[in-house]
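Deliverable D5.2: sample structural annotation.
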Amino acid sequence: MREINVAEIEDCVRDLCIQANIKLPGSLEDCIRRSGEIEKSPAGREVFAALVSNIEIAAKDKIAICQDTGMAVIFIDIGQDVHFTGGSLYKAINRGVARGYKDGYLRCSIVQDPLERINTNDNTPAVIHTSIVDGDKVGISVCPKGFGSENMSAVKMFNPSASAEDIEDFVTQTCSEAGSNPCPPIVVGVGIGGDFEYCAFLSKKALCRDINIKNSDPLYSGMEKRMLDKINRLGIGPQGFGGTVTALSVAIEKAPTHIAGLPVAVNIGCHVTRHAYAEI
């Protein structure tokens, strides 16, 4: 049994909150740069140039890449041979978030009650997804999620007879209705299967996948490619000014489901779909 003091988790979360908000994953930054070169709209190319400049300034000056520094979404994979010491794991995670947002001069956007709307002033509590895995290590992903894009997400409970094309059309329509609201070019996470809430979890997980990694199943990687093509044919373009690049990537995660259902969730991310990972 390996012992890990939760203070180590706290420090790691603190650092990841800052890192994720300042520096995009390398594969996403590279995709944005390449997309600016292939965008056919003059206005769209100007937008891409501004996005690249913003990325460079944020990294150089160590400031947030977007003013909406998001709700802290934490995925933590805990090896079953790990024993935490020193207090509550979840309290440590939230202390790490609070420190990261304070030390990184990041905007705090979380309200304690959804109707009373009083800001907690430290961007906690975080949304924490915990998984127990083999081994004696802890993997932590911090994924700050802005709500301009989050608000454009959707869930649909399909009839099990629905086809792959029906699902592709639903995802495309969701992106069409989102228009310029999620600050395109967007990254699209799709969850298929599970139940009502689990398909939404899958879509969030898909959104945080490295965009260079495609689904290992040819059926679903083919759907990813077709959906990306369909979304880019919408003509919404960078920041909604029209163009040929509306989406940078589509990623699907799937799970077993009930014989009577086919849940599908779409989680939309803006061009700064941020995530940072560390292993302890």
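Annotation notes: Helices lie at 6-22, 26-38, 42-61, 89-103, 147-150, 164-178, 196-207, 218-232. The mean pLDDT is 97.
The annotation will be released with the project's public dataset once the embargo ends.
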